[in-house]
Fold:
Amino acid sequence: DTGVSQNPRHKITKRGQNVTFRCDPISEHNRLYWYRQTLGQGPEFLTYFQNEAQLEKSRLLSDRFSAERPKGSFSTLEIQRTEQGDSAMYLCASSLGGQGTETQYFGPGTRLLVL
Amino acid sequence: AQSVTQLDSQVPVFEEAPVELRCNYSSSVSVYLFWYVQYPNQGLQLLLKYLSGSTLVESINGFEAEFNKSQTSFHLRKPSVHISDTAEYFCAVSGGTSYGKLTFGQGTILTVHP
Structure:
């Protein structure tokens, strides 16, 4: 079990640039989640996938954000025209199931700093 | 909509003292309740969860939490803490129409002093 991995671990970018993050879930997990965590707060849900289908998006996910999971394996989260308010830790989690009872396994996160 | 409130942002305690981290939730439907822990420089990991049945759930490292439906609480307790319990603890809920999506509280930083 290699766990959930995320790349890059850190990203510094200038306002207005586009960034893309990658998440590799645990291999047999069908669900993949993206959360965002700012300093002093708990993680906030952004979106999730069941296999390759994106089933729900939070209103936090503006039209500058897009997520994909093209083959039901890894996922990417892209932020276009970054703003300073996008600075946060972006967390990915995966799970097996879909009833809400299963454990979500979190990756180490990608810390984004927008200058 | 669901929400979670963790009543203490920081809890300092001495080693071997008991500790309680408080969590209250708000939901119009039945929920599943979780405690996740984040040790320094590590990712979030599940500590324990309540799904149904016995309202008292335990973790392998001595923590326990009790689901109290009437008070909408899921407080986390440990009778004697260790230095290694120093971490940030997050209470979370899932349920309703969005199975699986977790709603987290703000987190409680537990610092255990020698």
Q: What stands out?
A: The interface with chain A takes residues 4, 6, 9, 32, 36, 42-46, 49, 51, 90, 92, 94-95, 98-107 of chain B (CB under 8 Å). Chain B has a mean pLDDT of 92. The first strand of chain B starts at residue 3 and ends at 6.
